[in-house]
Design brief:
The protein is mostly beta strands. It is built from 3 helices and 12 strands.
Length: 198
């Protein structure tokens, strides 16, 4: 990312003072090979979500995504990274809305289905249109959100999509599906130890 790109992510000129970065990678530095990149990033455990949208005629679209994070609480913004091109990405730009479905433990087959190059990804997967935007919200999730697309930024072979939440729900008693070093797993939930003063 270069300094001129930063305003597209929502920063004002005043906020750019501390955010200035040089063009990079610097020419004197090499980049790692693909295997090293995958080994490093695969060591970071992530949740697993299905990002959904719909076409102008209401056809559902969706894909598996592990790159989801919080951006801001006020306004409520989140970010997803989607590889381009894809029918789901095209539907998001066409409709201007998308859903994020955080999968529950034991739903690894759903994650595989939405990651596979198959035409009927929604066949056999329970879902219903979201109450605010109509994007598909899946069953068996620990959380789900409907978002309005507010920013889109190209980064390598992916697009960074920032969405404003207009609807959200969660299931506090459900454990999430996790992904680590090319394998699906379940989190072992443990209570956090109390700190002094609690």
């Amino acid at each position: 990312m270069t300094a001129p790109d930063i305003p597209r992510l929502g920063l004002t000129e005043r906020e750019l003072t501390a955010a200035r970065v040089p063009d990079y990678p610097p020419p004197e530095l090499d980049q790692v090979d693909l295997d090293t990149f995958r080994a490093v990033m695969g060591s970071l455990p992530t949740g697993v979500s299905v990002v959904t949208s719909h076409t102008s005629d209401g056809a559902p679209r969706g894909l598996t995504c592990s790159a989801v994070c919080s951006v801001s609480a006020s306004p409520p913004l989140l970010l997803v990274c989607v590889k381009a091109p894809s029918p789901t990405l095209a539907a998001i730009h066409e409709s201007g809305v998308f859903g994020v479905n955080v999968l529950a433990a034991g739903t690894d087959q759903t994650a595989r289905t939405f990651a596979a190059p198959v035409p009927e990804r929604f066949a056999g997967v329970p879902w219903r249109p979201g109450p605010r935007t109509g994007v598909p919200l899946l069953g068996d999730t620990v959380a789900a959100a409907e978002c309005v697309l507010t920013r889109s930024h190209i980064a390598g072979d992916h697009q960074l999509l920032i969405g404003r939440l207009v609807f959200g729900r969660s299931a506090p008693d459900q454990a999430p599906l996790a992904f680590w070093r090319t394998r699906f797993s379940e989190l072992r939930l443990q209570p956090c130890p109390k700190t002094k003063g609690e």
